[in-house]
Amino acid sequence: MPMSDDPRLSLRLHFSSGLTFGRGKADLLQGIAEEGSISAAGRRMKMSYRRAWSLVEEMNGHFAAPLVDSSRGGARGGGASLTDLGRQVLADYRALEAVLRGQGARPLQRMRDAQRYE
């Protein structure tokens, strides 16, 4: 018997610039927006700071302007926030996810119903 979230649906965008943008990067941007910190967003995702920073640099390098603005740590601590473009990219990705879930519900149900479960 299939599980209620079967099949899982995920959206991954492959740009000709070489950037791949999917749920992980969107969740990282969401975490930065909510936590105000790249390291905190990474911890929330069980990701090292180095990995989180690498993904931020990758995203920042593939768009016309940075998605994340960060300041170094120190006595007052560092921080990070999404730029206007970062907020727009995140909102657009979430909108595409919603369209995919909505428009894809019936075809997914038909495909699920056609599966053989043993």
TrEMBL record:
Specify the domain of life of the species encoding this protein.
Bacteria
- TM helices/strands, residue ranges: none
Q: Which InterPro entries match?
A: LysR_HTH_N, Molybdate_resp_trans_reg, WH-like_DNA-bd_sf, WH_DNA-bd_sf
Kindly give the Gene3D superfamilies that the UniProt entry links to this protein: Winged helix-like DNA-binding domain superfamily/Winged helix DNA-binding domain
Q: Tell me which residues make up the HTH lysR-type domain.
A: 29-87
Any single GO molecular-function term of the entry would be:
DNA-binding transcription factor activity
Q: Which PANTHER family match?
A: DNA-BINDING TRANSCRIPTIONAL DUAL REGULATOR MODE, TRANSCRIPTIONAL REGULATOR MODE
Give the protein's recorded name. Molybdate transport system regulatory protein
